[in-house]
Amino acid sequence: KQEVTQIPAALSVPEGENLVLNCSFTDSAIYNLQWFRQDPGKGLTSLLLIQSSQREQTSGRLNASLDKSSGRSTLYIAASQPGDSATYLCAVTTSGTYKYIFGTGTRLKVLA
Amino acid sequence: SAVISQKPSRDICQRGTSLTIQCQVDSQVTMMFWYRQQPGQSLTLIATANQGSEATYESGFVIDKFPISRPNLTFSTLTVSNMSPEDSSIYLCSVQGAVAGELFFGEGSRLTVL
Question: Can you give the pLDDT at residue A99?
Answer without folding.
Answer: 87
